[in-house]
């Protein structure tokens, strides 16, 4: 088992792609992977459930990579299933190591002892969020201030009810960039696009934005794409081709502070 | 020079004392040290200025240690002078590597090249803030939710003008704990105590609170003690003896959420 050491197993550190990217956007994919590392086991899930939407956001990483190429953007993603630890949740959230996802129990997460919980925080959450923080701080140092975009996908049906929304644009306290992205998406695409749907900050889905963007006053948005629209590599590319100009155009529309003058 | 590697020189990592402390308060001292490591040099400062208040917060670490003992509190402090890098400032703030402090120029910080700036972020800022984040996340995982208290000192005279305030209680967006600490300090001590003086969040002094406490909804406060009141070890102990009951009593007065229920 991972110890409480500062050095987690190398395979669980945040994955960083395009580290030398010159674009302003930093893409983040907390639910990129459905990997269940041996050290944590398969949590009692069938092979089928290990590949289902409860384990990850299918299509999100492929879409994010397509966006990263088109926007010359840094991409940071997590290498472990969100059922092991959901990096978009604080360590004290019940949903961070959820005992049930949609209608599916996750046996390996039920009644997890405090030390088991801590092991997952050490091995998965801290390397991801501290690694992402380091990348953002480096870009903030060099300037210009990065813009944070988290990329997620959602299932077309939730507890048996179909969802009509195709693209969700979600914000937390700072709606600047989300508002601009919403306007550009509606102007440039035919996607059924909604603000703060199918989730909103009240559902606890904006942890990364709160932790990484808001303390630095960085413009930010969370994207949710219905996963039937990015179900294979070709569809991911087509969606990236559609959304890259949306994110780029919205960037031009917001006034983002470059630095903070401090005294004292 | 430090590289952009993930592993900074061990001597610059965040200093952690009382890691197994059972108290709820986490004490933070960003300006604990007036060390000028060889790798960065003395920035062109005289020996006298390297020991002056511009280089650190004299008395703050001694006071924080006195509080840590009395409150059974974790203590995290930075091992490098704030003139090398001010860990209580974001990397893009001019004050993070200030070319002038009060009326004193800091020659080694004037015209620093971007790579020099980045080296200090890598070597000082990131190890400190990521290290502090790890400690806070561990405590959040185990519960109860920690309460963050940053400990600072200020000079009795600023640009030649004397300051009357003895104890400053400073908050950012969440005033819960600060309000309670203010009331307890006024009730239990004769210190001339002011809210948001001699600095306030508008002066950019609450970066650590924004970065470490607010994203998790943790109660927090910044303390500023006039440094002539903690000028030697005996005075530091006396101040700790006075302030520990204030912090403890205020803790009982605020309702601090223990966890966050998440869905989605």
Question: Helical stretch count of chain A?
Answer: 6
CATH class of chain A equals: Alpha Beta
Give me the oligomer status: homodimer
Please state the overall shape of chain A, judged from the principal axes of the Cα atoms: globular
Structural class of chain A: alpha/beta
Number of separate strands of chain A = 11
Q: Strand order across the biggest sheet of chain A?
A: 1-3-2-6-11-9-10
**CATH H-level superfamily of chain A:** Zn-dependent exopeptidases
Give the chain pair forming the largest contact, with residue counts.
A-B, 46 and 46 residues
The CATH topology of chain A is Aminopeptidase
Q: Low-confidence parts of chain A lasting 5 or more residues at pLDDT below 50?
A: 1-5, 256-264
| Whole-number count of domains of chain A | 1
**SSE ordering of chain A:** EEHHEEEHEEEEHEHEH
| Architecture per CATH nomenclature, i.e. the level-2 architecture of chain A | 3-Layer(aba) Sandwich
Helix content of chain A: 25-40%
Largest sheet of chain A: 7 strands, mixed
**In percent terms, what proportion of residues of chain A is strand?**
15-25%
Give the terminus-to-terminus CA distance of chain A. 46 Å
Would you tell me the overall average pLDDT of chain A?
A: 93
Rg of chain A, nearest Å: 18 Å
């Amino acid at each position: 088992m991972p110890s409480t050491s500062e050095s987690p197993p190398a395979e669980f550190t945040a994955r960083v792609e395009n580290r030398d990217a010159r674009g302003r956007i930093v893409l983040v994919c907390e639910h990129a992977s459905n990997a269940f590392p041996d050290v944590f086991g398969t949590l009692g899930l069938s092979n089928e459930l290990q590949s289902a939407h409860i384990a990850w956001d299918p299509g999100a990483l492929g879409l994010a990579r397509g966006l990263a190429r088109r926007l010359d953007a840094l991409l940071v993603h997590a290498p472990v299933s969100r059922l092991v630890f959901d990096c978009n949740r604080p360590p004290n959230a019940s949903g961070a190591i959820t005992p049930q996802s949609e209608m599916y129990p996750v046996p390996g997460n039920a009644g997890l002892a405090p030390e088991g919980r801590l092991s997952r925080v050490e091995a998965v959450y801290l390397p991801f969020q501290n690694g992402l923080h380091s990348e953002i701080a480096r870009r903030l140092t060099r300037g210009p201030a990065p813009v944070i975009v988290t990329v997620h996908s959602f299932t077309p049906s939730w507890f048996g009810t179909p969802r009509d929304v195709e693209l969700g644009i979600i914000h937390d306290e700072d709606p600047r960039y989300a508002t601009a992205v919403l306007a550009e998406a509606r102007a440039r695409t035919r996607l059924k696009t909604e603000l703060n749907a199918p989730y909103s900050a009240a559902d606890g889905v904006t942890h990364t934005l709160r932790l990484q963007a808001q303390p630095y006053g960085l413009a930010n948005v969370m994207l949710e794409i219905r996963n039937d629209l990015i179900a294979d590599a070709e569809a991911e590319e087509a969606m990236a081709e559609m959304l890259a100009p949306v994110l780029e155009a919205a960037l031009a529309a917001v006034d983002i502070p470059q630095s903070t003058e401090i005294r004292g």
